[in-house]
Design brief:
The protein is mainly α and 78 residues long. The protein has one domain. It is built from three helices and no strands. Helix 2 packs antiparallel against helix 3. The protein is rod-shaped, with a radius of gyration of 29 Å. The chain starts with 14 loop residues before the first helix and ends with a helix.
Length: 78
């Protein structure tokens, strides 16, 4: 009996293309997630004390006087 769907068993079907695309998308998704996880940690680790102070002042957590006092303290340490 002849199997016309797969051209005599020679493997000309297109299922393998979809399998490759599926695994490619899975791997790219994993790489994207890992890249974003580690890049956000690196940015947080490289943040200086003055950067944190500026963010707190911009958010309204500290006053201008507190900002200037703390900035002088930080400058004396370095």
């Amino acid at each position: 009996m002849m199997h016309w769907g797969n051209f005599g068993g020679m493997g000309f079907g297109f299922g393998w293309i979809f399998m490759i695309l599926f695994w490619l998308l899975v791997i790219m998704g994993i790489v994207y997630i890992l890249k974003n996880m580690f890049s956000s940690r690196v940015l947080a680790e490289n943040e200086t004390a003055e950067d944190i102070l500026k963010k707190r002042y911009a958010a309204g957590e500290i006053t201008k006087n507190e900002f200037n006092e703390r900035r002088l303290i930080i400058a004396k340490r370095y």
